[in-house]
Amino acid sequence: MKTQTSLNTVEARRIAKRLLNHWKHKFEVSESDTEFRIMMPTATVVLTPSEQQLTARIESELEDHTRLEGVVIDHLNRMAQQEFNVTWSQV
Predict the structure, then answer these.
(1) How many domains does the chain have?
(2) What are phi and psi of 16, to 5 degrees?
(3) pLDDT the model gives residue 53
(4) 2 burial level (CB within 10 Å; 0-12, 13-18, 19+)
(5) pLDDT score at 55
(6) Is residue 39 part of a domain?
(7) Stretch 10-28: mean pLDDT, rounded?
(8) Cross-strand partners of 59
(9) pLDDT at 56
(10) Does 67 reside within a domain?
(11) Contact criterion met (CB below 8 Å) for 14 and 65
């Protein structure tokens, strides 16, 4: 299952990089010019920054991503130091 959301922000790369650095002590991570990946035990979080938004995608075999979606957005809010109101959708 995959779910995703987009955050409207001009600081997408900075926010994604902060979250990657925050979680690199707990999980395996990778970074390229176009995306940041955080490999958790049961899911992979893919952050794709652009000039006007940050797309966050969760990929896993889990039936329900509700808890993980909450953890990801909570951490993105903390890294951005602002509150994003998001809606996750299956892709």
Answers:
(1) 1
(2) -60, -45
(3) 97
(4) middle
(5) 98
(6) yes
(7) 97
(8) 2, 44
(9) 98
(10) yes
(11) no
Would 72 be classed as within a structural domain?
A: yes
> 81: alpha, beta or left, given left = phi > 0 and alpha = psi -120 to 50?
left
User: By residue range, what is the domain housing residue 56?
Assistant: 2-81
The residue among 60, 15, 20 whose CA lies nearest residue 36 is 20
User: Do 12 and 50 meet the contact criterion of CB atoms below 8 Å apart?
Assistant: yes
Alpha-carbon gap, residue 12 to 55, rounded angstroms:
8
Domain-embedded: residue 7: yes
CATH code where residue 25 lies: 3.30.310.50
- Could you read off the pLDDT of 30-81 as tens digits, one per residue? 999 999 999 999 999 999 999 999 999 999 998 899 999 999 999 999 999 9
Tokens of 2: 């995959």
Is the CB of residue 54 less than 8 Å from the CB of residue 7? Answer: yes
Unique residue bearing structure tokens 């992979």: 44
Give pLDDT, residue 49.
98
